[in-house]
Amino acid sequence: MNVYSIIAGVVHFAMKKKRERYLNDLVNKGLTLGANVEIVGNFVFDPSHCYLISIGDNCTICPNVRLIAHDASIKKILGFAKMGRIDIRENCFIGDSAIILPGVTIGPNSIVGAGSVVTKDVPPHTVAAGNPAKILFPVEHYINKIANMSRSRKIFSNEYHIDKLNESKRQELIESLGNTIGFIA
């Protein structure tokens, strides 16, 4: 292990601890966080209105997700801001860099695509994506589509995760992908 790997490990550990303290502070201020919630990387959960946010059990929140429970765009004009609850129900997946705005409920077992801006409720068992986010199809449809695609392609094991990659595995993975989508466990 070289000195750069050691430094990277120390920095990663320090950042993880900082995120944990930030999250614990939000929970102490009223954020409702279910069991087995996975929050990957950096996130912003409206610190001044975190008590309006609830995340159900078994959810995954990807990096750079923003949950914004208030809107102060009219505060200078009217003297007050809008605010609303954000309720992410159980077993949801919120994709990278998604933004969820005040007054939105994400129904159980739903998926919000990466980069989406969610301004309206997402019904249970659906996939929503876009800016503004639109309902695309039922989760079951999406699961079947991906399962069918995966039947004709290699599914790479966790031995191909970044921390286990060597040059040979990296090239194998890149060549396997070509100009299409691939899969990794």
How many β-strand runs? Answer: 18
Q: Which geometry do the CA atoms define?
A: globular
CATH architecture classification of the largest domain: 3 Solenoid
Tell me the number of helical segments per DSSP (H or I, 4 or more residues long): 4
CATH topology-level name of the largest domain: UDP N-Acetylglucosamine Acyltransferase, domain 1
Q: How much of the polypeptide forms β-strand, as a percent range?
A: 25-35%
Provide the low-confidence segments as ranges.
Answer: none
Describe the structure.
The chain is an alpha/beta fold and 185 residues long. It folds into two domains: 3-138, 3 Solenoid (UDP N-Acetylglucosamine Acyltransferase, domain 1); 153-185, no CATH class. Helix content is 29%, strand content 26%. It is built from four helices and 18 strands. A six-stranded mixed β-sheet has the order 2-5-10-13-15-16. Strands 1-4-9-12 form a four-stranded parallel β-sheet, with no helix packed on it. The longest helix has 26 residues, at 3-28. It is globular, with a radius of gyration of 19 Å. The model has no long low-confidence stretch (mean pLDDT 92).
List the helices and strands and how they pair.
Blueprint lengths: L2 H26 L3 E2 L4 E2 L3 E3 L7 E3 L4 E2 L3 E3 L2 E2 L3 H4 L3 E2 L2 E3 L4 E2 L4 E2 L3 E3 L4 E2 L4 E2 L7 E5 L2 E6 H12 L4 E2 L10 H11 L5 E2 L1
Parallel strand pairs: 1-4, 2-5, 3-6, 4-9, 5-10, 6-11, 9-12, 10-13, 11-14, 13-15, 17-18
Antiparallel strand pairs: 7-8, 15-16
